[in-house]
Amino acid sequence: MNTSPAAPIIDLLAELPLKEVLPGILMFTLPVDYGIDHVNIYLIRDGEGWCLFDTGADCEAARALWLRALAGPLAAGLTRIIVSHHHPDHLGLAAWLAQVTGAPILMRPEEREVARATSVPDEAGRRHCVEFMCRHGLSPSDAHEIVSGVLQENLACDEPPPSTSLEDGQCLEIGDYRFDVLVLGGHSIAQICLYEPDFKLLLTGDQLLERITPNVGVWPYGETNPLPRYIDSLRVIAGLPIEHVLPAHHRVYHAGEKRAHGLAAHHQRALRRFKAGLREGMSAADLGEANYGKQSETLHGFLAMGETLAHLLWLEADGHVTSRVDTGVVRWSPVQGSTEPMVQILI
Ligand SMILES: [Zn+2]
Q1: Cα(54) to centroid of ligand 1, in Å?
Q2: Which sequence spans correspond to the domains of the chain?
């Protein structure tokens, strides 16, 4: 591979899934070996080197692409590594890249904390997760399968070295760009998005995706009532002039405000569907199965339960449903005569 600094960068990019999406901003699309098949991470020209936004999942194919990129078009190295949130396709290679490149990591302390909890390191942590799932209606065998199999295999990331935090409203100069840091909840506890007002450009991580509805679910750790915070984040995003959305999955798109409204409408429809489908005494797992159908994979049953629970908590706060604990399981019932749930993100 030609690594001469005089080589035009565009020739080198052709050899890798790296492309310049805006002046001085590269999208690097890496393979992911579970769930979704790819993730987009971004490199922003930062003086002599590159500021990285998200790292990719830790799999052999992604590491191989990174090594080729660092020996070629990214030979100038990384100046800093920003991690949007703790999910493994974003945080997965942070520890390794920090070691390989020496670049410092910038991420929210809450996300680091959740990452640690997610890897379920000890017996107490495992027990906490199993009890949470059983309390919301999963069988003990499904709960054990999820904790010992899927959660640990897919979600555990190597812990990165100590990092610097980023604050909501902070201005971050990266090369020719001046980004405002947004800390947004709902998909994870404190996801970092970067907004560039002059270029009307938003790096969203998973907060606002075009073809996927970002997961908003209650997990055994982290955010306990995520839907109001997710709707708040859509309100923030809908209030920004946006011309370019640089997401973690699928292509760059342009209609950021329209997508924020579309996602708010999605959650309003979901709230109405959950309300209409709720029968006396259902658990979140029961209602999740009634709404999404029986899931063949245990993990999907867990995700359906978490999404259902997030919507039930909203419905309860708005007086549409009530809950009680019956022999250790949280059971939900409709409130007769309540109005239709509304989700508004217009200010
Ligand atoms: Zn995510």
Answers
A1: 11
A2: 11-108+161-265
Taking a 5 Å cut-off on Cβ, the residues next to ion ligand 1 are 87, 206
pLDDT of residue 299: 78
Give which of 287, 276, 275, 265 is closest to 315, Cα–Cα.
275
Is residue 256 pLDDT above 50, yes or no? yes
pLDDT tens sequence across 166-220: 999 999 999 999 999 999 999 999 999 999 999 999 999 999 999 999 999 998 8
Tallying the residues shown for the chain, one arrives at 347
The rounded Å distance from CA 91 to ligand 1 centre is 10
**Residue 33 alpha carbon to ligand 1 centre in Å:** 15
CATH fold of 11-108+161-265, please? Metallo-beta-lactamase; Chain A (3.60.15)
What DSSP string describes 273-302?
Answer: HHHHH--TTB-HHHHHHHHH---SSHHHHH
Instruction: Indicate the residue type of 16.
Output: L
HEC secondary structure over 224-250: CCHHHHHHHHHHHHHCCCCCEEEECCC
Q: Residue 154 — very low, low, confident or very high, per pLDDT cuts 50/70/90?
A: low
Computed over every residue of the chain, the mean pLDDT equals 91
171 C-alpha vs ligand 1 centroid, how far in Å? 23
**pLDDT surpasses 80 at 118:** no
Centroid of ligand 1 to alpha carbon of 333 (angstroms): 31
Residue 61, CA atoms < 13 Å, CB-side half-sphere = 12
CA of 188 to the centre of ligand 1 (A): 7
pLDDT by residue (tens digit) across 264-291? 999 999 999 999 999 999 999 999 999 9
85 CA to centre of ligand 1 in angstroms: 7
